[in-house]
Structure formats: C-alpha cells, structure tokens
C-alpha cells in the first residue's frame, strides 16, 4: 500500500513539473501538413547535378536558405536498391515526409539494404520520415552536419542498424523512434554531434559509440534494450546526461533521476510525448 501511494505521489509531482517545462523546439525547417505521399521509384543521386525533378526533387536550389527538397514520396526499396541514396554532394538538401518500405516485407532474406543512405555529403536534413523493413534504416558515411529529426524507423526481423553513422562530423540525432534492431543507434569513428530525446525500443544494443569524440548523449528513452559503450575512452571524450531506461522485466524506471514503477513511468512518458506533439508546428 505504501509503495502504491508513493508511486501516485511521484507521478503527480513529475506531471506537475512537466507542465512547467518549456515546450520542445520545433523542426529545424517548419513545414505545413502535407498531402499523402505519392509513389516514386527508388532515388539515386550521385553528385550535385543529379538533384533533379526526375530524382524526386520538388523544389530548391541547393543553398542553405533554399535547400533541395525531396518530399511527399512513398518509395519501395528492394534487395538491390536503397529507398534513397545520395552520394558525393556539397549542395544542401532536405528529405521530408517520405516513407520508405521494403518491397518484400514477408521475406527476411530479401530485405533492402538501406531505407536512406547518405555518403560523403554535407548539410543534409532528414525530417518527419517513416522507414520500415530495411536492413539499415538510415546510414551515414563520411558526412558532415547532418540532422535526423522526427524519423520513425522500424524492423520486423531484428535487422542490423536503425541508424548507422560512420566517420561523420556534427551529426544531430533528435526525437526519433527506433524499433527492433540489433543496434538502434550506432556511431563509429565520428566527431561532434548530439544524440538526444530519442525513443529506442526492443534493440540488442540501444546506443553504441566506437572510437568517437565530442558526442553529447542525453535524455533518450530506452525500452527493453541495453545502453552500450565499447571502450574506456568514451567517458573521457564524450559527454553523457541522464537517460530514461525502462526494463519491462525489472518493472522499474530511472526517470528524471527517480526510480518509479514502470507503469507510472509510462504515464509520464505519454504526457511528455503529448506535449512534444502538441508543440510541433
């Protein structure tokens, strides 16, 4: 009885605290509600000259004030083709409101390699997209100043990587949802950046850093997964804030520095998600 009363008091107190918190920040580039996505073939861009209407570009000139925009598409990736592949570009671009699905969701041996694959590019934004069924949701290699925001990534077969970042600089990973991967968010050989306020569910390893420096990690929610760092240099070269770690087997949560029963924490997290959605444009 005492534990139940304490849980109620904690829930009420934390909900009151949440009501006093400022609303979360909006998307880096505000966007209005869009039309349902139309079908498009897999998109492959190799160099700045390939940002064309044929390759799904709907507007923009590739500058910081007017990036190329790829939006409102439904794309079926295949075993030989990622949903969107962009390589060797210096122009700035935004991928928004795109859904990538695997063309063979019922065949685990024929998954597409990537939902979105970005190699050797700079200043790319991936915002408000849905990726499902591919071996890796989003893969970044050799990129700088890439922003992943409000992306839902899921797998049905505990695939390889939700978000894979290799040899990148200044990657921002905020407010994404990653479900059912071996490695939910995986960084290797990368410098600078932020991993913040992401929801990670059902992964073997939730957040993994290998040979990284200057990465800030904080305020992520991990449900039925683990939180991993693979060498002793992490605590010296990166900065870690509090995490919200939920384990349904243990039935308790470390939330805002207080241990509470899992069912109470889920109520609080629901309130937090509601406030986030309400504050979005």
Describe this structure in words.
- This protein is 15% helix and 46% strand.
- With 281 residues, it is mainly beta.
- It has a 16-stranded mixed beta sheet that branches.
- Helix 1 runs parallel beside helix 3.
- About 21% of the residues have low confidence.
Name its key features.
about 280 residues, mainly beta, 16-stranded mixed β-sheet, nine-stranded mixed β-sheet, 3 helices, about 15% helix
How far the N terminus sits from the C terminus, by CA atoms, comes to: 43 Å
What is the number of helices?
Answer: 3
Specify the structural class.
mainly beta
Main beta sheet, described? 16 strands, mixed
What's the Cα radius of gyration?
19 Å
Q: Mean of the pLDDT scores?
A: 76
Sequence stretches where pLDDT stays below 50 over 5 or more residues: 6-33, 229-235, 246-268
Q: Shape, please?
A: globular
Fraction of residues in helices?
10-25%
Strand content: over 45%
- What pattern of helices and strands is seen along the backbone? HEEEEEEEEEEEEEEEEEEEEEHEEEEH
Number of strands: 25
Question: Could you outline the blueprint of secondary structure elements for this entry?
Answer:
Elements: H1 2-20, E1 38-40, E2 43-46, E3 57-59, E4 68-71, E5 73-77, E6 84-89, E7 93-96, E8 99-102, E9 114-121, E10 124-127, E11 130-132, E12 136-141, E13 147-149, E14 152-166, E15 169-174, E16 177-188, E17 191-196, E18 199-201, E19 205-210, E20 213-218, E21 221-223, H2 234-237, E22 239-240, E23 244-247, E24 252-255, E25 258-261, H3 262-279
Parallel strand pairs: 1-5, 2-6, 4-7, 5-8, 6-9, 7-10, 8-11, 9-12, 10-13, 11-14, 12-14, 13-15, 14-16, 15-17, 16-18, 16-19, 17-20, 18-21, 20-22, 21-23
Antiparallel strand pairs: 3-4, 23-24, 24-25
Helix pairs in contact: 1-3
């Amino acid at each position: 009885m005492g534990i139940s009363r304490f849980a109620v008091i904690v829930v009420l107190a934390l909900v009151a605290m949440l009501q006093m918190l400022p609303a979360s920040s909006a998307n880096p580039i505000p966007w209005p509600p869009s039309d349902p996505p139309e079908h498009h073939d897999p998109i492959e861009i190799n160099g700045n000259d390939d940002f064309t209407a044929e390759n799904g570009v709907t507007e923009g000139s590739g500058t910081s004030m007017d990036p190329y925009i790829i939006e409102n598409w439904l794309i079926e990736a295949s075993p030989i083709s990622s949903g969107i592949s962009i390589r060797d570009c210096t122009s700035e671009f935004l991928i928004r409101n795109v859904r990538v699905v695997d063309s063979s969701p019922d065949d685990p041996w024929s998954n597409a390699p990537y939902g979105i694959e970005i190699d050797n590019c700079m200043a790319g934004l991936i915002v408000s997209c849905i990726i499902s069924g591919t071996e890796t949701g989003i893969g970044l290699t050799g990129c700088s100043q890439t922003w992943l925001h409000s992306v839902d990534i899921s797998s049905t077969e505990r695939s390889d990587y939700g978000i894979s970042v290799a040899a990148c600089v200044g990657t921002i990973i905020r407010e994404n949802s990653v479900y059912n991967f071996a490695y939910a968010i995986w960084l290797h050989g990368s410098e600078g950046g932020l991993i913040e306020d992401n929801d990670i569910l059902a992964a073997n390893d939730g957040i993994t850093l290998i040979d990284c420096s200057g990465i800030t990690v904080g305020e992520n929610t991990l449900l039925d997964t683990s939180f991993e760092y693979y060498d002793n240099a992490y605590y010296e070269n990166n900065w870690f804030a509090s995490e919200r770690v939920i384990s349904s087997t243990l039935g308790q949560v470390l939330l805002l520095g207080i241990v509470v029963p899992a069912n109470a924490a889920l109520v609080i997290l629901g309130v937090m998600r509601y406030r986030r959605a309400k504050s979005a444009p």
